[in-house]
Amino acid sequence: MSAPGAAFGTGPLSRAAALVHTLLTVEVLLLLAASPGLPVLLLAGNDPANLPLAALCLLPLGPAVSAALYALHHRDRDLTDLHPARAYRRGLRLNALPVLNLWAPLLAWLTLIAFTLTHFAATGLPGWWAVLLLAVGAGSLLWGAHALVLTSLFAFRTRDTARLAGYFLLRHGRATLGAASLLVLAGGLTALLTEALPALLAAPLLLSLLHSSRPVIAETLEDFTV
Predict the structure, then answer these.
(1) 84-98 CB burial, b ≥16 within 10 A, e <16
(2) Which 8-state DSSP code applies to residue 49?
(3) CA gap 96, 152 in Å, rounded
(4) Angstrom distance (rounded) from CA 123 to CA 211
(5) Global pTM?
(6) Most exposed residue of 26, 98, 135, 172, measured as fewest CB within 10 angstroms of its CB?
(7) Residue 40 in contact with residue 49, Cβ under 8 Å?
(8) What's residue 192's pLDDT?
(9) Are 168 and 176 in contact (CB under 8 A)?
(10) Residue 46 carries which DSSP code?
(11) Are 158 and 101 in contact (CB under 8 A)?
(12) Tens of pLDDT along 121-170?
């Protein structure tokens, strides 16, 4: 029989406490890392003229989310050895520049789509163009979700990450559907309640994204890393 102390940090209550501690720590650090833009974004309102400002405010969010994904992926379930803040800082240091190489163009592209849709009547285009733009925007968001996970956990070149994210969109439909469900949930919370709620629930949402992305992560480890 093992000594009582040997099981410390391995029981269900300990694992639950470790998860809660990690989620709370990562959530606070994510909000701090994204804080340069979030307050302005929440105060800017829904005026389409504010779309370029919103994109600028969202720039710090990419590295903040990437570091959160890194920390959650590398989390330790043992209460005797929890270092989520250290893992978050390491993820931010490793991934800030690589993720911005993908995040900034994605924001610019989505801003262009949103601006076109909010001024669609002035374009003179047929209505089916709006449907096409919505589909392209949704596909871009799902591509971005895969790209964020890949950039956060692997050290690929930017163009290789972009290609892999596009490859996994159809290759792992369940993972893409999982990311879509989380985006719909975040959008619903924003529309029905408040813009701040998805930000306050970012850590559990990102943990769910990692869970749904397990097939993508596993195949990347097996087939695309040495």
Answers:
(1) beebbbebbebbbeb
(2) G
(3) 9
(4) 41
(5) 0.91
(6) 135
(7) no
(8) 79
(9) yes
(10) S
(11) yes
(12) 887 888 889 999 999 999 999 999 999 999 999 999 999 999 999 999 99
